[in-house]
Amino acid sequence: MDNRTEPLVPGVWRIEAGTFVNAYLIARDGSSDADGLLLLDTGGPRSGPRLVRSIRMLGFDPTRIDEVLLTHWHREHAGSAARFAASSAEPEVRAGRADLPVVADGRAPGSGRGTHLGRLLQPRLPRPAPTPATALDAGEPACPGAHVIAAPGHTLGHRALWLPEHGALLAGDAVYNLWRLSIGPTSLISDLDAVPKTLAELSRLDPAVLACGHGPPVRSRAGRRLVRLADQAAARL
Ligand SMILES: [Zn+2]
Questions:
Q1: Contacts of 39 (CB under 8 A, 6+ apart)
Q2: Number of domains in the chain
Q3: Interval 220-235: pLDDT, tens
């Protein structure tokens, strides 16, 4: 299981940063590190060396990572951001504006409507080491061919990446694919009210490939399955 990587679509690789936890590497020029590399999520606090090894095994130089984008602040995704930021690569770390207080300053996360358990649990979740970070706003291109999508719900500042050329949606934890497609544990969701709208917007993209923060990518009927999940969330939440 260690150092498992797989090509997702041309120019994008899934890297297992931990057990059932994914990071994604994007080559700006689509094939090499000549124009720099973008890392989406970093795994947990101990995932850094493993990610670096995996990136080398893919034939890339990890010091070519010039940007680290975080789908959200949860520590199993943002846990090694500080380590990458302090490396010789000196990448810029970016996260959704509403998640920045947690990522940059270690402050308690904001929340909307949560479950009873979620209201107790979320302020106590371990946070990543504070990392200087800038805002990753929806609508801007993260790199050529990759669009930043606001996907709030799981956290208030959650972001996804949409690669229209490949029909690939890198959904972070807006969608889990552990045994089945789901919205993940509701106790981890910061704003239940935002989830149906986010899923409806993501499903309108009709992705051919759906890549999640947890679990393997969905390559078969991804768009239809996402529509069904959006419908279920709208009915249930
Ligand atoms: Zn999460």
A1: 23, 24, 25, 26, 51, 65, 67, 68, 69, 84, 91
A2: 1
A3: 999 999 999 999 999 9
